[in-house]
Amino acid sequence: MLYNLTLQTANTTSAVMAEKEAFITLFNKAREELGSLFKSVTTDGSLSIRAFMKKDTSGVKHLLDIWHLAKNLSKNIKAKCRNKVIHILRSL
């Protein structure tokens, strides 16, 4: 099920706050309409949304969308490889 919300950003202090406000509004709407059928939500992994999901969402899994998951995986692999090369070079 998809939900859509248009939010006036002039009513918020920042884009980050607008994103969080919109997410919480939609999250609560989905929880109200779906009840126990509401099992998971997929987002881009915004820090403010992650924080909300850790404390206020009993029983609902927070998943990272595939594009951001691939981006983070690539970034982490590059960092690990870079660290390994540095370690090898230092041992020479």
Short précis:
This protein is mainly α and 92 residues long.
Provide an overview of this structure.
- With 92 residues, the chain is mainly alpha-helical.
- It has a domain at 9-65.
- Helix content is 60%, strand content 9%.
- It has three helices and two strands.
- It has helices at residues 15-34, 47-55, 66-91, and strands at 40-43, 61-64.
- It is elongated and about 60 Å long.
- The mean pLDDT is 82.
Summarize the SSE layout with pairings:
Blueprint: H1 15-34, E1 40-43, H2 47-55, E2 61-64, H3 66-91
Parallel strand pairs: 1-2
Query: Pairing-aware structural class of the strands and helices?
Result: mainly alpha
Number of strands: 2
Distance between the termini: 56 Å
Backbone shape: elongated
Q: Estimate percent helicity.
A: 55-70%
Low-confidence stretches: none
Order of helices and strands: HEHEH
- Total helical elements: 3
Radius of gyration: 18 Å
Strand content: 5-15%
- Across the major sheet, the strand order is 1-2
Global mean pLDDT: 82
Largest sheet: 2 strands, parallel
Sum up the structure in keywords.
single chain, two-stranded parallel sheet, 60% helix
